[in-house]
Amino acid sequence: MSTHRTLNDWLLLFALVAMWGSSFMFNGIAVSSLPPLAIVAGRVGIAAIVLIVFVYASGRRLPALDRHWWPFVVVALIGNAIPFYLITWGQQVVESALAGILMAFMPLATIVLAHFLVAGEHMTRQRALGFAGGFCGIVLLMGPAALAGIGGDAVRIVSQLAVLGGALCYAMQSVLTRLIIKGDVLVAAAATLLVASLIVVPMALWQTPLSTLAPRWQSVAAVCWLGVVPTAIATVLYFQLIRSAGPSFMSVVNYLSPGVAVMLGLWIMGEQPSPNAYLGLALILIGIAVARRGS
Asked: Are 130 and 249 in contact (CB under 8 A)?
């Protein structure tokens, strides 16, 4: 595999940063009046519908139901159903800043998994140094107050472990996608999200019937955004980037996404980031540059 990163790779990367960087804020809005499983069901259900419409409108078709669907089942579970639920459930308790620190575990896990499973993704000293520097930037970006939140009572600890479990799932997904997902990326994304919706939607309806829900319109709008942008569109771009540039390069998203969260807080929520936030972003960018030189 060539380690050369094209302009298209970088454009895909920054598009995913913008899409996924917004998801923590919208998750927080959605969870204010909807249970986590209902949010995940709405997210993957909407995404599946959007992508299936695009597949058939473009003249493509989903593959026949046979053994070739097993990769879609694996990725649907590890990359959609399980991490979406774990992170959404954890965000009922865990603040977005602390969730960002925990999610930064994903690229660290990815470079370890890729080292053993993906050709051309061997861990070098420079790559490890760059990712370590990026993680320090994440910690600085989120601030000492977020670090002070680690620990606490049993519910809080379990919630933190849930977010960490979601990050680990994403790391596994990024490696497995490169190894087992083949063919057209739009078809693969649609099939994966269809499987995820067939798993999650019945469970959500069983747990919380529609007649018992009373969401605010903001939560409904947030779920629609999560379904269309950070899930449907982002999944297609994600598969394309994994195939083109590999899982370690894709994991850089997790260092840049917190910067999007800071900007959304500044522009939309009226928050004032501390000087540490800007210094943290600088460390993240330096870490990415160092890791890329080691790729």
From this structure: no
The C-alpha R_g of the chain, in whole angstroms, comes to 19
Q: Which two tokens stand for residue 167?
A: 């990050």
Question: Rounded to whole angstroms, what are the CA distances from 133 to 95, 175, 177?
Answer: 23, 22, 26
Q: In terms of C-beta density within 10 A (0-12 exposed, 13-18 middle, 19 or more buried), how is residue 63 classed?
A: middle
Contact criterion met (CB below 8 Å) for 112 and 173: no
When comparing pLDDT for 93 and 2, which is higher?
93
pTM of the model as a whole = 0.80
Structure tokens at 279: 């210094």
**93 φ, ψ (degrees, to nearest 5):** -120, -40
Which two tokens mark 161?
């472990």
Give which of 112, 109, 146 is closest to 254, Cα–Cα: 109
pLDDT at residue 1, as a whole number: 44
Q: Are 123 and 115 in contact (CB under 8 A)?
A: yes
Distance CA 159, CA 53 (A): 36
Amino acid, single-letter form, for residue 5: R
Q: Report residue 151 as tokens.
A: 């620990």
What's phi and psi for 270, nearest 5 deg? 75, 20
